[in-house]
C-alpha cells in the first residue's frame, strides 16, 4: 500500500508540474506575442484602436475539437469551423511551416488591421485572437470563401463581389491617417457571409504609407504575393502606392469574368490548338492582364469571357445589355492594370462598378 501511495503521489506531482509548465509557457507566449501586437497597433493607429478580445488556448482547442480534421474547412490552409460562446466562428491558424523571421509580425499585422476595419460590413469581422500559441490565432465571424468555380456565379453576383471589394479597398485607402495598402487582393482572401455580403480578409502583407506621403519603399528582394496579381512597379522596385492595390484589383476583375484556364490551356498542345491560336504561343506566356489586353486589342474580348454567364440570359435584348456590362467591366479592369488610360483611384472604381451594376 505505501508503495502504491508513493506512486500515486509521484504521478500527481508530475501532472501538476506539467500543467504548471504548460501554463507558464502559455503566459510567456501571451506576453511575447502581445508585445509585438501592441507595437503594431501603436504604429498604425497611435494606440487608438478598437479593443481586441483575447481567448485562451483552451477555448480555441475546445471550439475546434483540438483542431480536428472534421472542422478543417480549407485544404492547404489551417482554417477551422468552430463554436465559441454559442456562435459559429472561423478560426485562422497560421500554416506557415517555412517560418521566416517576420512571421509573427505578419500575423500581428493581420490582427491589427482586422481590428481597425471590423466595423465595416465588407471586411471579415475580427471577434478576437488567442496569443497563447507559438503564433497567434485569429477568431473571426463565420463566412464561406467565394466559390473557386466561378461558373456557378451569375454576372450580377460577380459584379456585386467586385463592387463590394472595391468599396472595402477604398475604405482602407482613405479612412485612416495612414493610407493602408492591402497588398494581397485575390480570391482566397474574399468571403461571403450567410446574407450574401462580400468580405475582404487577409492583411498579413498589408503596408501603411506614412502621413503626408504617397508611397513607401520596401525591400525589393522580399516582394511577396501571387505573381499575376502583383503590380510591375512594385515587383521591380519595391515601391508601394495605392496603384499597387488597384492593379491587383484589376486582375481580380479579369479573373471574375474570364475563363483564365481556357485561355492558357488552349495553347498547351500545338496539334490540338485551333488554327487561330497557333500564332499566339507567345501571347499565352504573358501575365493575365497582358493577355486580356491583347485579346481586347484584337477585338476578340468575347472569346475570353466565361460562356457560363450567357446561359441564363433570355432574349437578344437582355443578352446585348449584359454583354455591354461585361465589356464595361473588362475595360475598367484594363484601366486598373495600366493597359488603358490613367489608373483610377479605388473610390472611382467603386463608383463605376455601382453604375454598371445599376444598368437596366
Automatic annotation (TrEMBL):
GO terms for biological process: cell surface receptor signaling pathway; response to temperature stimulus. InterPro entries: Kinase-like_dom_sf, Prot_kinase_dom, Ser-Thr/Tyr_kinase_cat_dom, WAK-like. GO terms for molecular function: ATP binding; protein serine/threonine kinase activity. Residues 38-360 form the Protein kinase domain. One of its GO terms (cellular component) is plasma membrane. The keyword ATP-binding applies. Keywords: ATP-binding, Nucleotide-binding. This is Protein kinase domain-containing protein. It comes from Eutrema salsugineum (Saltwater cress).
Amino acid at each position: 500500500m505505501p508503495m502504491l501511495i508513493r506512486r500515486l503521489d509521484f504521478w500527481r506531482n508530475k501532472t501538476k508540474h506539467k500543467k504548471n509548465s504548460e501554463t507558464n509557457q502559455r503566459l510567456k507566449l501571451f506576453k511575447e506575442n502581445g508585445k509585438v501586437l501592441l507595437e503594431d497597433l501603436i504604429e498604425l493607429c497611435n494606440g487608438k484602436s478598437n479593443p481586441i478580445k483575447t481567448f485562451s488556448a483552451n477555448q480555441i482547442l475546445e471550439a475546434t475539437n483540438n483542431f480536428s480534421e472534421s472542422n478543417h474547412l480549407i485544404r492547404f490552409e489551417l482554417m477551422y469551423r468552430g463554436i465559441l460562446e454559442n456562435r459559429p466562428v472561423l478560426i485562422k491558424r497560421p500554416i506557415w511551416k517555412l517560418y521566416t523571421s517576420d512571421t509573427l509580425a505578419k500575423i500581428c499585422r493581420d490582427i491589427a488591421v482586422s481590428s481597425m476595419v471590423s466595423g465595416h460590413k465588407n471586411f471579415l469581422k475580427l471577434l478576437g485572437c488567442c496569443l497563447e500559441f507559438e503564433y497567434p490565432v485569429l477568431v473571426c465571424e463565420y463566412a464561406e470563401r467565394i466559390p473557386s468555380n466561378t461558373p456557378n456565379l451569375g454576372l450580377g453576383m460577380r459584379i456585386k463581389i467586385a463592387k463590394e471589394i472595391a468599396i472595402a479597398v477604398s475604405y482602407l485607402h482613405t479612412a485612416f491617417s495612414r493610407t493602408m495598402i492591402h497588398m494581397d487582393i485575390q480570391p482566397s482572401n474574399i468571403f461571403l457571409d450567410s446574407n450574401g455580403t462580400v468580405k475582404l480578409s487577409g492583411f498579413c502583407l498589408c503596408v501603411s504609407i506614412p502621413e503626408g506621403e504617397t508611397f513607401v519603399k520596401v525591400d525589393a528582394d522580399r516582394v511577396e504575393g501571387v505573381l499575376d496579381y502583383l503590380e510591375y512597379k512594385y515587383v521591380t522596385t519595391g515601391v508601394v502606392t495605392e496603384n499597387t492595390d488597384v492593379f491587383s484589383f484589376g486582375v481580380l476583375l479579369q479573373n471574375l469574368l474570364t475563363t483564365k484556364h481556357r485561355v492558357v490551356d488552349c495553347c498547351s498542345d500545338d496539334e490540338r490548338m485551333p488554327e487561330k491560336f497557333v500564332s499566339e504561343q507567345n501571347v499565352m506566356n504573358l501575365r493575365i492582364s497582358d493577355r486580356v489586353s491583347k485579346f481586347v486589342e484584337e477585338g476578340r474580348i468575347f472569346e475570353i469571357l466565361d460562356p457560363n454567364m450567357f446561359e441564363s440570359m433570355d432574349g437578344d435584348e437582355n443578352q446585348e445589355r449584359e454583354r455591354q456590362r461585361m465589356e464595361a467591366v473588362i475595360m475598367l479592369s484594363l484601366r486598373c492594370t495600366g493597359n488603358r488610360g490613367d489608373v483610377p483611384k479605388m473610390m472611382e472604381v467603386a463608383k463605376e462598378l455601382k453604375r454598371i451594376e445599376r444598368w437596366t
